[in-house]
Amino acid sequence: MSNVRLDQNGVPKGPCYDPELPALHRSGVTAVDSVDPADTSGAVNTGGYQNCRFDITITGVGFTSLDVQVLFWNSRQSKWFVGSSRRLDSVGQHAVITDCRGAIIYLKVAAFAGTSFNLSADYSLS
Asked: In a structure prediction context, what are the per-residue pLDDT tens digits for the chain, which is 126 residues long?
C-alpha cells in the first residue's frame, strides 16, 4: 500500500493525503456554458485522487449570482452527468470541493444573473 502512514507496530493508520499543486482548469470565461463539453479535452482527470478543490476567481459588473456545476464523465455512455452544484452570490475568491474518486470532471458555468462576469478556476487534487 502506498501513501499509508504506519504506527510504531507497522499497522496502517489511514491514507496519507498528499495534495498536488494547483493547476489551471479554465480562464477568461465570460459566458454561460450553453451545452456540456463535447468530450473530455479540457477536463480534469482525477485518477488516483479522492477530492478536487476548484479555486474560483470571479470579477464582474452588476453581479448578482453565478451557478457552477461539477460534471462527471461516464465513459460507457460518452456523456456528462451533473454532480454537485453551487450558487456564488458575490465576486471574489470561492472554493468548491467535490468528492471525485478518480473520475474525469469539468467545472461548468450553468447560470448567471447580472451584467457581465469573468471567471477563472484552478484545481487541486488530494
From this structure: 455 566 677 777 665 566 789 999 999 999 999 999 999 999 999 988 899 999 999 999 999 999 999 999 999 999 999 999 999 999 999 999 999 999 999 999 999 999 999 999 999 998
CA dist., res. 34 & res. 1, Å (int): 43
CATH architecture of 20-125: Sandwich (2.60)
Q: Parallel, antiparallel, or unpaired: how do β-strands 4-6 and 79-88 relate?
A: unpaired
| Domain segments of the chain as ranges | 20-125
Q: Distance between CA 55 and CA 26 in Å, rounded?
A: 10
C-alpha 56/C-alpha 27 separation (Å) is: 10
H or E stretch including 106?
A: strand 104-113
This prediction has a pTM of 0.86
